[in-house]
Structure formats: C-alpha cells, structure tokens
Amino acid sequence: MFTSNPYAQGGWYNPQNPLSINGSAHPHPWFPNASLPPTFGALPTVTYPTNTLSFEFSPAQPDILICFVVGPNRTTYFKVVTPNGATLILMPRDDGMVRIEWQAEPKFEIRNVIPNVYALQWVRLSQDQSYRTMSVGGRNVWAPCGGAIIVRWVG
What we know:
Elements: H1 6-9, E1 56-58, E2 67-70, E3 76-81, E4 86-90, E5 96-101, E6 107-110, E7 114-118, H2 119-122, E8 124-125, E9 132-136, E10 140-145, E11 148-153
Antiparallel strand pairs: 1-2, 2-3, 3-4, 4-5, 5-6, 6-7, 8-9, 9-10, 10-11
C-alpha cells in the first residue's frame, strides 16, 4: 500500500492516520527508491549516455601483474601476464601489445607506437613534482584526477 501512495512516497505527514509511515514515530521520510523522478514512475525516466568508460583488473589477487582488464559489458580488453620478470599486456587474441622490463631503470615498449624506452623518458614528472603524465603522439595524457587516473584528450 505504501508504495502506491504518492503522498507517503513524497514524505508528507498525515496526522489523521496513526499508521502513517512519516509520522512522529518515523522522524525521517520514507523513500523506498530515491532514484525515482518526481513523477514517481508515472512517466518513463530519461537516461543520458555517459562518456566515461570504466575498466577493472579482474582478478587483481595477488596483484595486477597477472590479470584481465575488463571494461564495459564485462568485455575483456587486455590480458596481463608476467613471465620471467617482464610484464606483457596482450590483446584478447594474445597479440603482444606492451612489454615492460622490470629492472633498476624500467624499460617498456608499445608495439608499432613507442620503441623500447626508459619509463622516466615517457612518464614525465609534473613541474610541481606532485604527479606524472604521459602522452602518445602528443594527443592523450594520462593524469591523476581525484582518486582515479584518467585519460584526457588534448590538441
């Protein structure tokens, strides 16, 4: 009954109804689904497409050096393996894309994009030395934003 009563859903108190879910016994209004629009489901809701893509390392235990990178619709975008001290980032069909050599001064390469270079040459320290950025062909920059690392398209 309460879910079909728009007055109850709106949080309005009814002093003539001792069973009111928004009475003095319940100091906070009851909102069964706070994501409902003001029409309380009488009209269809509008969804807006987002331009943000989220990825996760799955599974990331014991660490992310052996995992899958999973994106929208649970699609596997990359496979990460670390045999013999070098990390390989592979496309879904096991095509090698990135190789990272873990040594005193780490080196890496991105197939057909960046030759084997030292990480410090590509992942540069910011002027205030609070973060590092990187770019590919002068177009995209990876940089921290809040608690995440994001890609910004520039130029």
